[in-house]
Amino acid sequence: MSDHYERVKIELQQMKEVENEAAADEEQLSPASVSPIPADVSFTARRDLSKSSINGRSRSKSRSKADGHERQVNGKQLTDLMLQKSDYSQGQSRVSNEPNLHIKGTAKLFKGKTAANGHVESCKRQTDGKCEHHGKEDESKVAKKRRAVTVDTSKAKTSLEALKMSIRQLKWKEFPMGRRTACDIYWHGVSFHDNENIISGQVNKFPGMIEMLRKINLSRAVRTMQELFPEEYNFYPRSWILPEEYQLFSTQIRLLKDNDSTLKPTYIVKPDSGSQGDGIYLIRDPADLRVISGSQIKQAVVQEYIQKPLLIDKLKFDIRLYVLVRSLEPLEIYIAKEGLSRFCTEPYQEPSQKNLSHVFMHLTNYSLNVHSGNFVHSDSCSTGSKRTFSSVLYRLASKGVDIKKVWSDIIALVIKTVIALVPELKVYYQADIPPGKPGPTCFQILGFDILLMKNLKPVLLEVNANPSMRIEHEQEVSPGVFEYVPSPVDEEVKVGVIRDTLRLMDPAQRKQHVTSSTDGSPEEAIVVETGSDEKEGLADSLPSLCLKQVFPKYTKQFNYLRAVERIAAIFLRFLGVKGTMRLGPTSFRTFIRNCKLSNSSFSMASVDILYIDITRRWAGMLPDSREAGMCLQAFIEAFFYLAARRFKALPLREQVHLLLEVCEGALEGQSHSEKPRPHRSHTNPASSQSSAPTTFSSPALTRRRHRPLQLSAKANTEN
Ligand code: ADP
Fold first, then answer.
1. What are the Low complexity biased-composition ranges (predicted)?
2. Across the chain, what does the average pLDDT equal?
3. For residue 504, how far is its CA from the centre of ligand 1 (angstroms)?
4. Are residues 469 and 362 in the same domain?
5. Alpha carbon distance, N-terminus to C-terminus of the chain
6. Whether the Cβ atoms of residue 329 and residue 682 lie closer than 8 Å to each other
7. 212: CA distance to ligand 1 center in Å?
């Protein structure tokens, strides 16, 4: 870390030397080798894809994760309507009474829109209030005054096409070869670490997201939440982690079958690092696990197979939804109003010994089904093997399905899943960008894969850290010859998602609408005004946002689930700021001492034994880890143990809640007597008010409010 810090200092110095902003704006890293695409392309309506088609490109070996390729977007109005009417909106529904349904958030441009467009509605709101409606002249003045937002696209990889289009639409400035001075936004194709030298601005990846979304880690994170909130987290199929839980899995399945011999459960086995259906297979008996054959035991998740999915045209399908995590602190989540539905290509039958290997019947992956003779490339969004999600909803609505309920269940699933991921993400974040050191802030678009059960309950299959943002798709133009051809629907959905993500991350646009709260009440969380771009003269040429904020909007309903995040805040406090992710034994002792958790019946010797036992076991489960010490998951386990020990005979969630109160109370007392030290939290620039959960008591538990924990109030320097 110190080397890195030295580098950072040098770079900061270099940056100071390059002060002339105007000149710097024009500066591309390597003028001689600049990309054929001009850096400052002025906006011209929608790009003609046929002109820049990449037909004839040979078939890529490393295809990105399954994505959608429907060609038209219908029923978008419906999606929008449903999102606005979701069950959680609690009277905040803004559904229009106008006869025409509004088309919001598409990639289409509505130049000079009339009142039937959501943006103008919002302008009206401003006019009704204090803001004046700004005319074209004012807009161009504002636009002239405003420095174009700069985006480094040099690492964008397969999302480059969609990103370029988004930047052009926004009239921002692209740096395709990187830039010597800092950019406002860095767009990475794979990971936070694609470019190690960023010390300011915003990066479109969080450190640790790829790791957290591997199948085993996602299962672990959800499982921790299931221990505390089994009802709330029943949207994730029961899973076992291999190889460590092979015995447990075998025993539980045997018991199940012994108890009821008519039961014929099926399980799906997924390699930990697999994607696009690679290496996935179905089994009906633990003995059929292929991962235990040979000397090498592969890491995998074995999961209860959902036997009764919702079918359309007798086919199984899943949903790809795009979700933006705009910030971890405060937590801000957006969901794209349009998604994709990927269909199987063989009529579905419940699993039987005969059909277990029929991948085209059981797996919805585009990357697999595209090779089936039955794959239908359709020009319509509502037929074929890949459709828009809104077209599916439209179809369901026509059959009387309560799609408003389906949407609100999906929103809940997304928020709960992100809440499960946040604790560990914060640990990664602090390790990479410790408080007090220069670094960027982060945001990330995730791809949620969701299955609807026959009873319409959404089930989480997986979350992709790098959902494909390709806007072209692979097509077999003649037998065995594949080409990439432009996909208008991909463009429609994905350019909208990227462009509106950028709009939300625009440094000049991010505005705070915070009513300061002395007690950290979740009801008073930050609200981002998504229509703020209208004040900058851009909205006239852009549709309203296709991303809908769901958190903090629904904070009230979900904040009580953020218990593990509070445990992580304690962990981080004792971890200190040295860029590590593991707690040493002395730090653990300090935690016990500072929180006053030891007593005559729980001596410091017992504390040491607890530390060693749990840390060793987790070290065995995480063989790849290079760092020694106690990881967050181990700390959580220790915390649960301490809670159960101290508050016997209560349900775990209440035990944990009470222990959190004890710890936070003790630490708060100490914080008050300590000198505050300056620190840089992993807060996005415009979001200075922490939204850290202050209580996780559900309505059933007594409420006692605490101030948010100061993550770096006292860094322990042990280790
Ligand atoms: P990958 O990353 O390889 O695509 P997924 O977890 O998405 O792995 O699984 C691939 C496909 O298998 C999914 O798209 C879905 O069709 C099917 N699938 C996955 N998990 C389940 C499950 N628990 N029940 C039923 N089908 C599943």
1. 683-700
2. 76
3. 31
4. yes
5. 15
6. yes
7. 18
Residue 84 Cβ contacting ligand 1 at under 6 Å = no
> Rounded CA gap, 586 and 592, in Å?
10
Looking at residue 43, its amino acid is: F
* Residues 460 and 363 both lie in one domain: yes
Q: Within this chain, do residues 192 and 223 fall inside the same structural domain, yes or no?
A: no
CA-to-CA separations, 455 to 70, 82, 166, 239, 545, in angstroms, rounded:
26, 19, 38, 21, 31
Closest approach atom of ligand 1 to CA 279? 3
State the total domains in the chain.
3
For residue 301 and ligand 1, the question of a CB distance below 6 A is answered with no
Q: What is the pLDDT of residues 183-231, one digit of tens each?
A: 999 999 999 999 988 999 999 999 999 999 999 999 999 999 999 999 9
CATH number of the domain enclosing 607? 1.10.238.10
Domain that holds residue 579: 562-667
**Residue 248: enclosing H or E segment and its boundaries?**
helix 246-259
Which two tokens mark 351? 């699993």
3-class SS of residue 324: strand
Query: Are residues 499 and 479 in contact, defined by beta-carbon separation less than 8 angstroms?
Result: no
CA distance 42 to 40: 6
Question: How far is ligand 1, taken at its centre, from the CA of residue 280, in Å?
Answer: 8
Please work out whether the CB of residue 461 comes within 6 Å of at least one atom of ligand 1: yes
Report H helices in 433-495. 488-490
Q: 605 and 465, same structural domain?
A: no
The verdict on 188 and 255 lying in the same domain is: no
Span 420-457, pLDDT tens digits: 999 999 999 999 998 888 899 999 999 999 999 999 99
The distance from CA 574 to its chain's CA centroid, rounded to whole angstroms, is 27
Rounded Cα gap, residues 577 and 432, in angstroms: 10
Q: Is residue 622 part of a domain?
A: yes
Residue 268 Cβ < 6 Å to ligand 1: yes
Residues 345 and 249 reside in one and the same domain: yes
- Rounded to 5 degrees, φ, ψ at 55 are -55, 145
From the list 319, 464, 315, the residue with the least C-alpha distance to 375 is 315
Residue 447 within a domain: yes
The ligand 1 atom at the shortest distance from the C-alpha of residue 344 is: 16
Q: Which of 162, 177, 203 is the last residue of a domain?
A: 203
In this structure, is residue 2 part of a structural domain? no
Pocket probe for ligand 1: among 267, 302, 308, 363, the residue whose CB has the most ligand atoms within 8 Å is 363
270 in contact with ligand 1, CB cutoff 6 A: yes
Going from the Cα of 268 to the center of ligand 1, the distance in angstroms, rounded, reads: 8
Q: Do both 572 and 637 map to the same domain?
A: yes
Q: What is the DSSP string of 341-359?
A: EEE-SS------TTTTT-H
How far apart are alpha carbons 676 and 188 in whole angstroms?
35
Pocket lining: 449 vs ligand 1, CB cutoff 6 Å: yes
How far does Cα 528 stand from its chain's mean position?
18
Task: Assess whether 395 and 316 both reside in one domain.
Answer: yes
Residue 458 lies in a domain: yes
Task: Strands of 619-660 (E only): list them.
Answer: none
HSE-up of residue 120 (Cα within 13 Å, Cβ side): 13
Close Cβ partners of 662 (under 8 Å, ≥ 6 residues apart): 595, 596, 597, 646
Strands (E), 417-557: 441-442, 444-452, 458-464, 472-478, 481-486, 547-551
Q: What is the pLDDT of residue 482?
A: 79
266 lines ligand 1 (CB under 6 A): no
Q: In this structure, what CATH number is given to the domain that contains residue 471?
A: 3.30.470.20
The answer to whether the pTM exceeds 0.70 is yes
